[in-house]
Design goal:
Its main location: membrane. This is ABC transporter permease subunit. Belongs to the binding-protein-dependent transport system permease family. This protein has 755 residues and is α+β, with helices and mostly antiparallel strands. Strands 6, 7, 8, 9 and 10 form a five-stranded antiparallel beta sheet that branches. A four-stranded antiparallel beta sheet has the order 1-29-28-27, with no helix packed on it. A four-stranded antiparallel beta sheet has the order 2-3-4-5, with no helix packed on it. Helices cover 38% and strands 27% of the residues. Helix 4 crosses helix 10.
């Protein structure tokens, strides 16, 4: 007999089909939306990171005749901050200021060179903050000049007015009383002191000398101008062959360079008694030093030789903790001799010019060649990088001036600087370092992602080491052995732990758990022994309990009896830890680790993170694994038991194998949760980006590093983009790991689906 269809029944059936279709399309739309969101996140991260790996570019802007060629040969080229005005210092004592884009002369100013003398040497001081230059004269005197630029805005138009300033007065300074010409000279002008080192020419009275003169400003309360206190000394070094003299910015170290490759390193902290620290050869046999310059910060020397090699020599502490110059890297910039080296003023980059007219720009720490261009067919006679390193001015031997624009935003980043060991200035050896900020103006950013990846994996490892055994064993017992009524309370209680805010867990870990663990370190290790022993003793004693009592306990409620046993065992572990620590380790366990094993102890360390983050990960692993085990079809377990297998054999050989895809998913999701955790590791680790396997040392993870530094980074800066690169690495790591996990899970499902 056919059922009678009514209009109401047809309506409800049609409405059910509509709801099914809506649900199906909603699920599909939601899934596609998640995929689209993930893809968009990936491409946005890639969009922000991509500029880090774009090569630097250069473009010729203009070419014109050298301004005011009649004033003499160029000793130095300079550019001001805005790249709008250049300066040409000549050997006649004239300074020509001109527009860099057109070559139009703005003004010509004469340095106060005394009549009857001529310039015999010239040197540039630090170019930062109104760079000073010094002229050595033929009568043993010298004059120091600073070039400065005043910016005004008449009628809302920027006008740059150049001028010369004499920081020690217009009267020349007498450096050599005998009147011998100054053949080589160097100067460093500070706010309160000025140091000059000059090599004098041979005279009938005797050979030349290397003189050190220091002027110290002393401000009096009753005088308008500061008085100068002078200190003179002589460097005990043969002046023959000295081709270049360099003084560092602190006016405490002096370098004498000779053409034959000798470098003399002197301590001039005591201006009245300079002392030699080191004398060594810095180029190969048969080679000559053709150029030398300080890298930004005046810690390293960039030395170019006749074979086209530029080597970086930096001050490093030797085995006796004494400063010594050591070569830390080199660059093959040309097959021709390196004519000049000009360092960037704000980064660790430098520009080279070779004898073939090729200009190259490099970054020392990243060991990158950024630009290599032939600016002129003629030999360059002078070249300079702008203060912001975004423009280049070159004078060639054919009387032309070449002005180029440079786009070089992120030279600090390379595969080596991100992932390999790098030898940074003032470090004893190459290392992995993350240090993106510093109060020191000579700071060099260090963007190694390796310690952050290491810290991420270390934190996740110790968290999983704590969480996996507890969560999986708890899931197995709850799903397979526990009484159903007890499970109704236990499972929701553990799952609700996952709702705890991680910032609260991090707060408790940092302010309570870390100090408590430091004070009771031996108690935590005693837990690993005393609690299992206590449980085993209780289990052993339980079999002697009268059957009349044990039969009153319903099956599956055994775990309730272990709760007080575990609590009591834990209390005993912490109570006996102090006398045990005193008896076995003669005091503190932390001190014993340090003295006997050389293992230090930081209060906020990986052990604290493992416990705190393991507590956060346990609910995730437990919930998914318990559902997977509980969902194993009952006919499998009943059939196994019917064939004579014990409950433990059934659990190990049937239940776990069938539930293995779900258990594996639980572990992978828990691991992903640990890898991406931010607040707990942020508050409980000390955020020290070190690479140490010790469980007692701190760490810094990728996620915590992004959370800490992103608010302080300048938008579109190198630091900003490297942080996005860290986010991309974390994204890719999670994506690849989860993809592999899904592949393994599917294979496990196919393998055990036939059970």
């Amino acid at each position: 007999m056919q059922p009678i269809k009514t209009k109401s029944g047809e309506y409800h059936q049609r409405w059910r089909l509509i709801k099914d279709a809506l649900a199906r399309y909603g699920v599909v739309a939601g899934g596609l939306g998640v995929i689209v969101a993930i893809v968009l996140i990936f491409f946005y991260l890639l969009y922000v990171v991509y500029p880090l790996f774009i090569s630097a570019t250069s473009e010729a802007v203009s070419e014109y005749a050298v301004p005011e060629q009649t004033l003499g040969n160029t000793l130095l080229l300079e550019m001001e901050e805005q790249n709008e005005m250049g300066a040409r210092f000549t050997d006649s004592g004239q300074v020509a200021f001109f527009e860099t884009a057109t070559g139009k002369t703005v003004s010509t100013q004469a340095v106060a060179i005394p009549e009857g003398t001529h310039i015999t040497s010239f040197a540039q001081g630090s170019p930062i903050n109104e760079g000073a230059v010094i002229y050595g004269l033929s009568d043993g005197r010298a004059i120091i000049v600073k070039h400065q630029y005043k910016v005004t805005y008449p009628n809302n138009k920027r006008v740059i007015t150049p001028s010369l300033k004499y920081p020690l007065g217009e009267q020349p300074l007498v450096l050599d009383d005998s009147g011998a010409a100054l053949e080589k000279i160097a100067v460093k002008v500070g706010e309160s002191a000025t140091t000059i080192v000059a090599k004098t020419a041979n005279t009938p009275e005797g050979p030349g000398k290397i003189r050190l003169i220091n002027f110290q400003k002393e401000q009096s309360l009753f005088a308008d101008e500061a008085a100068l206190t002078r200190t003179d000394s002589v460097i005990e070094q043969s002046e023959a062959g000295v081709a270049d003299i360099l003084i560092d910015k602190d006016e405490s170290n002096l370098y004498l360079v000779s053409n034959d490759g000798q470098l003399g390193f002197f301590d001039i902290s005591d201006k009245s008694s300079p002392a030699i620290r080191q004398q060594q050869n810095v180029v190969g046999a048969g080679q000559k030093i053709t150029s030398v310059a300080f890298l930004n910060g005046d810690i390293s020397l960039m030395i170019g030789d006749s074979t086209g090699l530029v080597s970086q020599w930096s001050m490093v502490k030797d085995k006796l903790n004494r400063p010594a110059m050591q070569k830390i890297r080199s660059f093959k910039v040309s097959d021709k001799a390196v004519v000049s080296i000009d360092a960037e003023q704000r980064r660790k980059g430098f520009m080279t010019t070779d004898a073939d007219g090729v200009v190259g720009i490099y970054h020392s720490t990243a060991e990158r060649q950024l630009i290599k261009e032939r600016v002129s067919d003629a030999l360059p006679t002078a070249a300079v990088l702008s203060p912001r390193a975004n423009a280049l001015l070159v004078q060639s031997a054919d009387g032309k001036m070449h002005f180029w624009h440079i786009d070089n935003e992120h030279p600090e980043v390379s595969i080596k600087s991100l992932w390999q060991k790098v030898w940074y200035e003032s470090y004893p050896k190459p290392d992995y370092i993350w240090q993106s900020s510093s109060a020191n103006s000579d700071f060099e950013p260090k963007y190694s992602l390796t310690p952050l990846v290491f810290g991420t994996l270390k934190a996740a490892f110790y968290a999983m080491l704590v969480a996996m055994p507890l969560a999986l064993m708890g899931a197995i017992y709850t799903a397979y052995f526990m009484a159903p009524r007890m499970r109704q309370y236990i499972k929701p209680s553990i799952e609700i732990m996952g709702a705890l805010p991680t910032v609260i867990l991090g707060f408790l870990a940092g302010l309570w758990l870390a100090p408590f663990m430091e004070e009771h370190l031996s108690g935590f290790f005693a837990l690993l022994v005393i609690v299992p022993v206590g449980v085993m003793l209780f289990a052993f004693a339980w079999q002697f309990v009268p059957k009349t009592i044990t039969h009153k306990l319903s099956e599956g409620w055994d775990a309730a009896l272990l709760v007080p046993v575990i609590l009591l065992s834990g209390w005993i572990a912490f109570k006996v830890s102090v006398p045990l620590e005193t008896f076995l380790f003669h005091g503190s366990l932390r001190d014993w680790f340090k003295a006997e094993l050389g293992i230090g102890y930081d209060q906020r360390n990986a052990l604290v993170v493992g416990v705190a983050m393991g507590f956060a990960v346990i609910p995730t692993i437990f919930s998914i694994a318990e559902d997977a085990i509980f969902s194993v079809p009952k006919h499998l377990t009943v059939g196994s038991l019917a064939l004579g297998a014990t409950p433990w054999q059934t659990m190990a050989r049937v239940v776990l194998l069938t539930a293995s895809p779900g258990i594996f998913s639980a572990i992978m999701i828990g691991f992903g949760r640990a890898v991406g955790e931010t607040m707990i590791v942020l508050m409980a680790t000390g955020n020290t980006p070190v690479m140490d396997l010790s469980v007692f040392q701190g760490l810094r993870t990728l996620a915590a590093n992004i959370a800490v530094e992103m608010p302080e980074s300048e938008v579109d800066s190198t630091h900003y983009r490297v942080l996005f690169l860290a986010a991309l690495v974390l994204f890719m790591f999670t994506f690849i790991f989860n993809t592999l996990a899904e592949v393994i899970r599917q294979r496990l499902r196919e393998k055990y689906s036939s059970l």
